[in-house]
Amino acid sequence: MDTFILLSCLLIQCFLMIITPTMSQQSIPFEGPRLSAHPDFKSFSDHGIKASSTSTSSSNTKFRTYYYKQTLDHFNYRPDSFITFNHRYVIDFQYWGGAKTDAPIFVNLGAEAPLELDMKDPGFLHEQAPKLKALIVFIEHRYYGQSVPFGSRQEAFMNASRLGYFTSTQALADYAEVILHVKKMLMAERSPVVVFGASYGGMLASWFRLKYPHVAMGALASSAPILYFDDLVPADGGYYAVVSRDFKAVSQSCHNTIAQSWLEITELAKKPNGLQQLSRLFNTCSPLKSATVLKTDLISMYASAAQYNRAPVYRVNRICEAIDGAPKGTSVLEKVYAAVVAYDSGTNVSCYNIGGYSPPSETTKGWSWQRCSDMVMPIGQGRNATMFPYSPFDLQDFMNTCYSEYGVYPRPHWIVTEFDGHDIDLVLKKFGSNIIFSNGLKDPWSNGGVLHNISDSIVAVTTTEGSHCLDLLYSSSDDPIWVIKQRATEIEIIKGWIREYNLMHGIN
Ligand SMILES: *[C@@H]1O[C@H](CO)[C@@H](O)[C@H](O)[C@H]1NC(C)=O
Ligand SMILES: *[C@@H]1O[C@H](CO)[C@@H](O)[C@H](O)[C@H]1NC(C)=O
Ligand SMILES: *[C@@H]1O[C@H](CO)[C@@H](O)[C@H](O)[C@H]1NC(C)=O
Ligand SMILES: *[C@@H]1O[C@H](CO)[C@@H](O)[C@H](O)[C@H]1NC(C)=O
């Protein structure tokens, strides 16, 4: 069974599940690295979520929750299309300058998570809104949280007839309706709207600006790998190639030890009592059923460490310190176990809880469907993923697995057909405006991102050392200077858009 990456910027419950025949719940065909601002890898809990949630709750927040009567299917007129569901969104009024001023509306486009999780991460919005007297609106993505059609999650996820309305294009249309509704409700039809999103949410933000330019005058798309589809294979080999590069940059010998470990795991597992020995060596909470289970978990650990390598705990460095710092004579597998312990240190684990086996989160279930419908990202461990076992993406295999799970085939070419991706420079230079693509180049997703400036107003704001979605998170005293600068650049650009918009619309 292949393993895959989950793309999500705004989710918490995102440890990587491993597919096993023992799972009684709906199985999850695709897992892997997450598109998520925050990891929550197994027992992993001390990575800064606390800081952001404190900031959210300690400030004098005035969030109000609303429900919009959302149309199930925006794109045809069959009777089923007219079914509606309650679409949740939240408004924070506390900084707003009001409809008659030049105050903007900041809209966070929900990603593959319930709204509560979407609201936790984007400190950037909360911190910049007071300076610009902005209204903040958070909109949930359909089929997540409370914004689920057909009465309940269970009903909505029953089969492909129900899940078929769960697409990125429907979600964008939902956002357009909600934003226009909010503007009307607040008599703020002329106020400038800027959409924000992180990771998958960032892809949505950039696509929203291109599809609904009359609704949003600008977009900040953080760590949005819009060029990771179809035949737009990243030049340097993809997600796992960057993970390998990140480790190599910290320590060549650490990288080499990890590279060596896969074969050793395989060989040991083949021996009589090999799995027992592996279980003992890795202090697993329950006996290992296969070497693959262990390898899959280790791969996701390294991926997560690279994707979220940031203050206060740089986990790539921590893993490599454990591996390189092992006493002379320590075996390769013992070193890898030391890495597992180091990765989890700070949390209270007495054994290596491989796979976790808590029930799959709604993000896990929802993203699995999304990957099997329109979000077909060809992520594999190719030749440049030097630290990992060779396991390239196999589209046919992917399609078949999706079909057996959902009874429908994914559409691997649809995203590029709908939103483009080829010759994006030439196309967007003449056609688009007001999009910031922000990336940290250490983020394995960055190689599917837009990394250079396309025009004066379609710009890439990158940092060499940055990780996934770092710019949109709350600022903290641990922030390196380059992320402080990155955020300052972004807000200056956004202010420029707003000034121009207000001039054009005679607002002052
Ligand atoms: C999905 O379930 C609904 C409700 O039970 C049913 O009406 C529909 O025919 C099912 N669709 C498929 C493709 O099985
Ligand atoms: C590996 O990376 C190099 C340099 O970045 C690139 O030119 C090459 O195409 C990549 N190979 C694969 C198989 O992706
Ligand atoms: C951690 O584990 C130890 C020993 O099992 C226990 O006494 C302690 O209460 C745990 N601490 C936390 C914060 O869970
Ligand atoms: C793109 O332009 C912006 C704004 O002028 C600038 O801050 C940024 O450094 C440029 N990005 C790149 C990758 O050159």
Automatic annotation (TrEMBL):
Look up keyword Protease and say if it applies.
yes
UniProt entry tagged with the keyword Lyase: no
GO biological process per UniProt? proteolysis
By its UniProt entry, which InterPro entries does this protein fall under? Answer: AB_hydrolase_fold, Peptidase_S28, Ser_carbopepase_S28_SKS
UniProt GO molecular function: dipeptidyl-peptidase activity; serine-type exopeptidase activity
> Keyword set for this entry?
Glycoprotein, Hydrolase, Protease, Signal
- As given in the record, the signal peptide range reads 1-24
Per the record, the similarity remark reads: Belongs to the peptidase S28 family.
Query: What name appears for this protein in its UniProt entry?
Result: Lysosomal Pro-X carboxypeptidase
